[in-house]
Design brief:
186 residues; alpha/beta; Arc Repressor Mutant, subunit A; Glutaredoxin; 2 domains; two-stranded antiparallel ribbon; 6 helices; binds FE2/S2 (inorganic) cluster
Length: 186
């Protein structure tokens, strides 16, 4: 089945493609656009990216499968990516995974019944000096521990903030009221 993305998405991708010598170079931003519009990178999203960039579907799939920022299955409204690599792990990252399992009652990769939450472990998020780190949608939360993570989840449930970066509109979401973008918890 062919997917239909918004004209704004199509226009943004045309703009991005025009900035590269070859359309194939736009596979990664095209995947972000598809994910933003469709919620995850489905087979149809792969096909859309391949058609628009001229890259082989197998190549598009290999790019999507390599990077954890592309969701290969449906995720919750808030998707938590918890770093499991060394610096975060030795600072308590492992404990945070147990907290998420208990808090949501689902396994990594599953979505809570209300559609609000999902989580997974990922490799280094590139912020090793401020671990443990979790990326929720497109926003980093750093120096977490179990209590801070619980407070963060409570605040997100209460405020329902926009934690996404829009590739189509080129906009960052507003974030939490007092922590608009990234949050290093003291
Ligand atoms: S080890 Fe966690 S961000 Fe690098």
């Amino acid at each position: 089945m062919t997917v239909v993305l918004s004209e704004a998405a199509e226009a943004r991708l045309r703009e991005i493609i025009a900035s590269y010598p070859q359309a194939k170079s736009a596979v990664m931003p095209a995947l972000f656009i598809a994910q933003e519009e469709l919620g995850w990178v489905s087979d149809e999203a792969i096909e859309w990216v391949a058609q628009r960039t001229g890259a082989a579907p197998a190549h598009v799939r290999s790019v999507a499968s390599f990077y954890t920022m592309y969701y290969k299955r449906p995720v919750g409204k808030y998707h938590i990516q918890l770093c499991r690599t060394l610096s975060c792990a030795v600072c308590g990252g492992k404990e945070l995974l147990s907290c998420l399992r208990e808090r949501f009652g689902v396994a990594p990769g599953e979505v809570t019944a209300n559609g609000m939450w999902s989580f997974e472990e990922v490799e280094c998020l590139g912020s090793c000096g401020t671990g443990p780190v979790a990326q929720i949608n497109d926003v980093y939360f750093e120096r977490l521990d179990a209590a801070k993570l619980e407070e963060l989840i409570r605040r997100i449930e209460e405020e329902q903030p926009d934690l996404r970066y829009s590739t189509v509109k080129k906009e960052l979401g507003g974030g939490l009221a007092d922590r608009p973008r990234s949050a290093v918890w003291k």
